[in-house]
Amino acid sequence: SYELTQPLSVSVALGQTARITCGGNNIGSKNVHWYQQKPGQAPVLVIYTDSKRPSGIPERFSGSNSGNTATLTISRAQAGDEADYYCHVWDSSTVVFGGGTKLTVL
Amino acid sequence: QVQLQESGPGLVKPSETLSLTCTVSGGSISSHYWSWIRQPPGKGLEWIGYIHYSGSTNYTPSLKSRVTISVDTSKNQFSLNLSSVTAADTAIYYCARRPDGGSAFDIWGQGTMVTVSS
User: Fold this and answer.
1) In what order do the strands lie in the sheet with A69-74?
2) pLDDT in tens, B32-73
3) Does B88 touch chain A (CB under 8 A)?
4) Which among A51, A91, B53, B71 has most CB atoms closer than 10 A?
């Protein structure tokens, strides 16, 4: 079965750029989506189809996808960006989620 | 705008069937794909399966033998039944929408905690 690998944690200084990776075999051939989940809340879609932002998501959130790695980039990180982030793809008509990355803003 | 709301028992006994309903408001269930996703305490997300308003379904292989997802278009609801539950099924259960023509989950319910315990 297809697997997605994310780092358990990423730290970023306030105002700097955070990059969260999602690794998978030839993931560049798939559409990757990213969700933000704050404690006690449901996940929220922040990037879909590799690099598109839903309405209401700040331009500071961006995504890329190539080869075996997809990346969620958060520019000018704010305290409110602290959350768990999950990547998601479809493989053989089933959903695959990455294990999630905890983003800490220092 | 479209909102989703899960409902059902918060406590289920081992070996019994977990039953949850997701009510769609602010829009019609008669389009799009509707999924159930769960999250054990302190762990990541696990997709359970989806149903299309037409009734077609797809389930994750690891749960396929125990899962049934159904839709009631007259009530704008879809439901999850998970049979023969164990403590490993204890989780927050979310319902979510995947739009026709898309592949991301763009709208989620707030989630409901289900504990399996005697």
Assistant:
1) A18-23, A69-74, A61-66
2) 999 999 999 999 999 999 999 889 999 999 999 999 999 999
3) no
4) B71
- Could you read off the pLDDT of A5-31 as tens digits, one per residue? 999 999 999 999 999 999 999 999 999
Task: Give me B64's structure tokens.
Answer: 């396929």
Residue A44 sits at the chain B interface (C-beta within 8 Å):
yes
DSSP line for A31-75: --EEEEE-TTS--EEEEBTTTB--TT--TTEEEEEETTEEEEEES
Among all residues of chain B, which has the CA nearest to that of A47?
B104
Q: Which residues of A touch B44 (CB under 8 A)?
A: 86, 97-100
CA triple A24-B39-B53, angle to 5 deg? 85
A-B CB pairs within 8 A amount to 54
Tokens at B40, concatenated: 């054990």
Q: What is the pLDDT of residues A39-84, one digit of tens each?
A: 999 999 999 999 999 999 999 999 999 999 999 999 999 999 999 9
Distance between CA atoms of A95 and B65, rounded to whole angstroms? Answer: 17
Residues with Cβ within 8 Å of residue A99, at least 6 apart in sequence: A4, A5, A6, A8, A86, B44
